[in-house]
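User: Okay, second chain of the day. Same drill as before: sequence in, structure tokens out.
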Amino acid sequence: MRRTAALAVLAALLLLVVPPTAGAQPDAGAGDGASGVALVSQTTWIAPDGEIRLRIDTSRAEPTDRLTVTLHGRLLARYQLVDSLAGEDPARSIRTIVDGPIAELDADGDGLVDARLGLRATAGDPERQLIAQEGLHPVHVTLTSAEGDQVGGFVTHVARVPDEVEQTLGLAVVQPLPTTPSHRADGTIAVDDATRQRLTRAAAVFADADLPVTFGTQGEALQALAVSGNPLDAELLEALADPVTDGALAATPFVDIDPDALVRAELAELVPSQIAHGAQTATLALGQQPDDTTWIAEPDLGATGLGALVDAGVRQVVVPHEALVGELPVILVQPFALRSDAGLVTALSTEPGLQSHLQGDDVDVLDVQHLLADLAAVWFERPAYARGTVVQLPPDVLSRPATDALVRGLSESPLLSLGTVDEVIADADPAAADGIDAQVEVPADRLVLDLPPWEGDRLPGSYRADLRRTEEAVDSFRAIFQDADVLAGAYDQRIAVSASSALSDDDRLDHLRSIRDDIAARNANIGMPDRGAITLPSRDGEIPLTLVNNTGAPATVVVTFASDKLEFPQGDRLELTLTEPQTALEVPVRARASGAFPLDMTLESPDGRTLFVDSRYTVRSTAVSGLGIVLSVTAVVVLGAWWVRTARRARAAHHAAQ
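Assistant: Same drill. Structure tokens below.
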């Protein structure tokens, strides 16, 4: 009941963020729909005694237009599939499935025409087409006007499969879901519309797919949805958790990062911290622990960045085929070794031919059927080999009709084994350096490929220095406000966001500067007088001092004292926690001399990194020391003795004169 309600709310949200298509028409461009016909659905994998079924939308065709559906002979190699898709079939037509005016074929008037043809593998019913051998067959759909001109059409394919399949082709489906940081430089959080739409589409189209898709996204956007307070965002996360649980979540950095750029900026430690932080947030948001050993690579990943990922625990990587350097085989649909600065790592690459069917902004049902046909062609070339490959779906997510066609086609295939990236790698034989037919007997036999030199954008030279200053400011903040873990954690997240490769150089520096400014504004509410004058009437006395804390939170501070003429019986460093707006202190001191002299005091954080106030007081001591008293008494005694002797001599001289 809860899941049904979540899906209903999700459907409402999807209508808000994704414009609906008109009526129940298939995707625009599915075949030649703009000129009259489009593919709605079909069977792809046909058993020896199975049935070919196509549903064709003819709602844009004229009633007098003629629809012809023909089955062609078996393709002998994968390269012939390319010719077939270009309309240059090497195989002749072997059976007409449908041929007639739209007005006669569309008896219900709903614009949908079903084309059906039964198959047989041996002699039997002549109404069923004899196809004795397995293979891939083109099906041509043609629309001609009453005048005989072709006005529409497309080519799709069906795979006549064998009775038994001993070895399947492993397939991992990867769905990147890139996001834009939701944390703004000013500390506010707002989920980007494109991010919310992308995640909503993914949750909607994969809701009931039951397909082991490996998703790749960032934890920051998931966390932003979790704390947004919007009930629809909570429903979105709940709906997204289901397909993620059915499949896997690849290593999920907190934000999208460029590992090479971080290493070049001497910030390699941010790679593992990003992965760990992203894993924590993703787990809390989706209830699914990411697979931190699997990384979905961008085309510009270099050997240095890959090395940092390996050091962070990544053990397998999905890499675009166009990013590879080395002696590449004609087709690479096996795991191989990829060289990094930290050693070799196991990799799967996308296959250019397969990926070509998913290019463009309007991938439709027919494009998906071409992909399925190409996967069949790959299997038919080497049916006895344990191989595996990966298909990476467009980041903006396929439409629901295209996704349904993909899910149905993949799940029904007897030639494919679907799995997560690690499962496909584990079940496939590794590629050998000696060729696609060679075997790997020892690790040295593996195919080893390289990544090209990294040519991405470097981080600005000031970023590392600003990052360190900001980290120190946050560490000091923690030492001062020991009960403010939530706010300190928010600062940590904003620091992590600054590493996003989606930010401009100015934006990332603004993020850091904003954090320091925020901390400085809070620290400005802590202080003490920066100057003053105190008189000590005796040798031992007390310095009165008032500390201010207007932050509204307990603050731990340190006061230090320094003076050449004063002693501090309780020490020259005092650490205390200010819990009130004003805290009065009386600091015991002992004067070493009388007179006026300076007393320097500082108010700072416990770690010494933050200085609140640097004060200088003037201390005047009117006390006389014990040594002074002794000297004074001695002087009086000496003076008295001198006076007595002088008086005696004067009297003696007077008597002598008489």
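Residues 526-623 form a domain with the Immunoglobulin-like fold (CATH 2.60.40.10).

User: Thanks, on to the next one.
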